[in-house]
Amino acid sequence: MAHIKNDSLPFAFFEGKIVPIAKAQINIQTNALQYGTGVFGGVRGYYNKNGKFISLFRLDDHMTRFLNSLKVLGESIEYSKKELIDITIKLLKRNAPTTDTYVRPFAYAGSLSLTPNLERDNPFYFAQYMIPLGDYLPTDRGVTTCVSSWRRISDNAIPSRAKITGGYINSALAKKEANSNGFDEAIFLNEAGHVAEGSAMNIFIVRDGVLITPSKTEDILEGITRRSILRLAQDLGISVEERVIDRSELYVADEAFFCGTGAQVAWITSIDRRKVGSGKRGKIAGAIQDLFFRVVRGEEEKYASWCTKINI
Ligand code: PMP
Q1: How far apart are CA 162 and CA 74, in angstroms?
Q2: Which of 40, 225, 226, 295 to mutate to test the pocket of ligand 1 (most atoms within 8 A of CB)?
């Protein structure tokens, strides 16, 4: 596949061992490739130049969600959470990145059978790779958004609280529509017409000083960054609500921002061409963004337990 650009760090974990990324290849007939029968995770590692370490953000929680995604499918892999964490650390040390890094654990249905199935003869296998990753969305200038005409996949179609590979066609459609209409990012409504999240990130709005985010039962991925921000906001003395958000609340919000492992904390300047607040970084979004970046870089002692520091 020499014609495909590959940004990956040199080594991957594949079929039980660490191999050069070029050797981590699957057959085109693989069930997961054909039907999206896989689950994945995404963890960020922040590189500290002075300390020569990578700080992995909430690694344990990411691996819990990864295993829960498999559980939703009624599947399992041969590794425990502890083993997954050990593999991640070993692979990170082997790749020895000197930039911020994105870690992608992945489990896929490996059979070559024609049927999309989750049967016993179609076991899931674990693999992992890593890529250097800076900003996924701009975090300094604010992002423009639109409400997508695509609805967020619902719990009884493709369970949205599980990070299922096949479900990401939903994200890709929303992102494509937003980008082709000149916006940076999309906001999904769920089938009930309530605000759900971005294409691959959770959303918060601020109204009258209260930080609000859709509750866990609104067909969202239960983001680990979302959970972290709820905690940070409470610690900052900001009132928080997890509840249903109407579409039109987006248009009258004082502030809005996305959050996620890729997105980090990215504030929103406009929604459907309506300016959010002043169109600049809001007070609450700003306070949270500043604290968030200190926390993930391991600079806040209080949240040290969220950071796994790996010497490089
Ligand atoms: N929603 C979706 C659909 C996502 O893909 C992601 C990224 N994992 C998020 C939200 C944010 O979740 P987290 O903070 O755990 O990265």
Answers
A1: 12
A2: 225
Cα angle 210, 136, 97; round to 5? 120
Decide whether any atom of ligand 1 lies within 6 Å of the 307 Cβ.
no
Name the burial class of residue 78, with classes exposed (0-12), middle (13-18) and buried (19+) by CB atoms within 10 angstroms of its CB: exposed
CB of 203 within 6 A of ligand 1: the answer is no
- Alpha helix (H) residue ranges in the chain: 31-35, 59-72, 81-95, 168-180, 224-235, 247-252, 283-296
Q: Give the residue whose CA is nearest to atom 11 of ligand 1.
A: 260
| CATH class of the domain comprising 11-132 | alpha beta
State the catalytic residue, choosing from 5, 52, 163, 283: 163
Partners of 257 in beta bridges: 204, 267
Rounded mean pLDDT, 31-44: 98
- Please give the backbone phi and psi of residue 61, each rounded to the nearest 5 degrees, phi first: -65, -35
Give the pLDDT mean for 192-219: 98
Residue 148 carries which side chain, given as an amino acid letter?
Answer: S
In the numeric block, which tokens belong to residue 164? 């299922």
Q: Nearest residue CA, atom 10 of ligand 1?
A: 201
Query: Which stretch of DSSP H or E encloses residue 118?
Result: none
pLDDT in tens, 280-295: 999 999 999 999 999 9
- Is any atom of ligand 1 closer than 6 Å to the C-beta of 167? no
The answer on pLDDT for 233 being more than 80 is yes
Rounded Cα distance, 279 and 274, in Å: 9
At the fourth CATH level, the homologous superfamily of domain 143-296 is: D-amino Acid Aminotransferase, subunit A, domain 2 (3.20.10.10)
Nearest to 276 by CA among 299, 258, 294, 303: 258
- Alpha-carbon distance of 265 to 8, in angstroms, equals 24
Q: Are 220 and 196 in contact, with CB atoms under 8 Å apart?
A: yes
pTM of the complete model: 0.97
- Across the range 254-277, mean pLDDT stands at 98
